[in-house]
Amino acid sequence: MKVRPRKKEGIGAALLAKAHSAEDASRIFTEKVQQRPLFLTPSSPPPSDARAARRRAQEKKKEQRKKALKPKPLSATQRRKLGLYDVPREGQKYAVFEALHTLWVGYIHEVLGSEIYTGGEGAAAKLASADFHGAEVEIVRSGCVSRVGIKGIVIKDSKFAFEVITRKNRLKLVPKEGTVFRLEIPSPKQTDDKSQAPTPAKEQPESMVVEIHGEQFQFRSDDRASRKFRTHFSKIL
Amino acid sequence: MLAFQAPSVYQASKCYFTYGKMGHVDPKQPPSKSKPWTTLLGQDFVHRLDLIVPEEAYEAVHAAVVQNREAPQFKRVVISLRDVLSGDFFTEYIKKGNIMMVSEGRIGIDNVYCLKDGVLTMFLDKETYERAGLVGKPHGVKGKRGLKPRWVVEFALKGDSMFPGKKGFERLVYASKNALSAPVTWLFCNVAGTVPTPDPLLQHSPANHTATPDILQSVEAAIPLLQPAAEYIESGARDDLESFSTELYEWLSLVRLESPRINPRDDIDPFLCRYHAPDPVTPGKLCKISWQGYLEFLATVPNAPSCGHQTRWENISCGR
């Protein structure tokens, strides 16, 4: 059975010739295949009467208006261009953020209350939902060894990284993945006593040391507030 | 660091055999490029050193190696890495002097620090490495991939960049304050021989040890042929050379173990032991001098390879 089409007509004509008589086959081929209109846009052919044309114009306008009203997030390029989160050069000073750090210490004392002395799960739960902007953080362990030793005040706490300003006025963006951060929270008595004469070292209460595993902490600070943390086995430890 | 690779499931232990003629050796300038000199110089920490010589040559060797020199000394001290890298100890011993130190532990299981020729090598487990923040290379057969990856970190402390205040050195100091801060027991050996005054080690109260040589004289032994037959060398018959070298190695090990099997008049029941020294055998007498401790090879037997030309033969064996 030879289905090979003749060079002029093609396989469509050959198949039609099998199903229909010769004239029908050639008529179907010409009307339905060769002269088939290809609609390049859904709206072509243009509307035949004025009413259909007006209706079409109105619907198009409504759709555009709806789209313009819908809020769209910025793309990464637009965000970078706007520079919403950039700290200006004059502002990249550690001294500027030390005041923020003092505020943060006060805030964390309120959050922890008396659990700053006992530590444990209660303190951990409260700290997990606390905000860390202004905390003095040191990177203590990391899969990327060059990050170890970075110490500074947290400026930005994003979903996957901490932006930190160091004492040498350098901004460092430290990813949370595979990294352990250490915080030292001075106890309330230490901060109160600063105005009075300094007590001898033995009597001074120690500070609370907290280590945060960045792997488990990869949430935005606002999302973290309502999150219930469950213990997970860590791949890196 | 290791002169020979540690045996593992994947690679059986190898025994290397070199045969050649030694020319005249100047004791003050021994060659260092060819075998066996590269093997001798490649030894790092030696725990046990045995020297076996025929009795005829014993007097000369004894005079050269034992009598006219002090027995090698080493110390055991508890000191933290931070103290090693700071103060007088660092400037006198590490920068100016030549010392050898190794810390307690098994490489591959514990955290071990070694210092040799001014190179500090640290064998760390994963947690310590990640906390230290120093750049290193994966260590071990599995490297980074296994369940418990291990790392090696090396620092050339004699270099120009290793001074307090320089970035690279400061990172090492930071690590020694945080991750590597615990005091560790070290074995310390002063290779240079001169002790700086005042000795920076004294404040850490070291315990002194001396590796006095044990001397075994006039051991009756059946000595086999110590040179391979000429036809083995010329034809390059590998099997014959192999059997010759393994039999010789076996005999030397038995001498080293002070086994009674090498005695020519040994008459043990063949049910218990069927060992015979490889034929042809000449009875003779041997002497063995052995040192045990934390030794540096060339400091212990500096003249030994060169006084070999006075004796007909000698054997030096060392083990870690």
UniProtKB/TrEMBL annotation, chain A:
UniProt xrefs under Gene3D superfamilies:
Ribonuclease P/MRP, subunit p29
Q: InterPro entries, alphabetically?
A: RNase_P/MRP_Rpp29-subunit, RNase_P/MRP_Rpp29_sf, Rof/RNase_P-like, Rpp29/RNP1
The record's subcellular location field reads: Nucleus
- Entry GO MF terms: ribonuclease P RNA binding
Q: Which domain of life is it from?
A: Eukaryota
| Keywords assigned | Nucleus, tRNA processing
Bias (Basic residues) = 53-70
A single GO cellular-component term on record: nucleus
Q: Which GO terms describe its biological process?
A: rRNA processing; tRNA 5'-leader removal
The UniProt record lists the keyword DNA damage: no
Q: Respond yes or no to whether keyword tRNA processing is given for this record.
A: yes
Q: Where is this region: Disordered?
A: 33-73, 184-208
Protein family membership: Belongs to the eukaryotic/archaeal RNase P protein component 1 family.
User: PANTHER family, alphabetically?
Assistant: RIBONUCLEASE P PROTEIN SUBUNIT P29 (PTHR13348:SF0), RIBONUCLEASE P SUBUNIT P29 (PTHR13348)
Protein's name in the database: Ribonuclease P protein subunit
Query: Which species is this UniProt entry from?
Result: Cercophora newfieldiana
UniProtKB/TrEMBL annotation, chain B:
The terms under GO molecular function for this entry are: ribonuclease MRP activity; ribonuclease P activity
Q: Its domain of life?
A: Eukaryota
Q: Which InterPro entries match?
A: RNase_P_Rpp40
Q: Where are the transmembrane segments?
A: none
Alphabetical GO biological process terms = endonucleolytic cleavage in ITS1 to separate SSU-rRNA from 5.8S rRNA and LSU-rRNA from tricistronic rRNA transcript (SSU-rRNA, 5.8S rRNA, LSU-rRNA); tRNA 5'-leader removal
Q: Which GO terms describe its cellular component?
A: multimeric ribonuclease P complex; ribonuclease MRP complex
| Name of this chain's protein | Ribonuclease P 40kDa subunit-domain-containing protein
Q: Which organism is it from?
A: Cercophora newfieldiana
Organism lineage reads as: Eukaryota, Fungi, Dikarya, Ascomycota, Pezizomycotina
